[in-house]
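Bug #77: duplicate submission created two jobs. Keeping one. Sequence:
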Amino acid sequence: MRTLVGDMPRFARAGLPCEVFVEGPGIWIDRATSYQPDVIIQCGPRLPGDARFVDRPVVIVEILSPSTAYRDLGRKARNYFRVESVAHYLVVDPDDRIVSHRRRGEGGAVVSEDLSAGELILDPPGLRIPVADLLPPPGAEGP
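Kept job's structure:
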């Protein structure tokens, strides 16, 4: 997660008007449902400092734990893609050292792949991130 958390300089170099929120604002799915993911990348005009919800999330990241696995891989995965701006949903499994990448594909279909190495391509917003940068070092404790 160290890459996403410290990615403001990378966004600036790439000319991307994006902000990274860690355990910060939430996302409305509909008028009755909201979530507060571990990390959100939002691109576009900057949010006010006191914003409680983002309105244009592009990338959503959840860190898997035994208590949240069922929700993160099921209902949340489906619901996040109900938000039109969401292009990528990443679920980081620190114990199995896998990043599950769901992305909006052709015609709005959700495409899924599990990665344990290589490079993650997030377009939009136009980022390439080594999968290893999203995982804890080998032997590190999970959440």
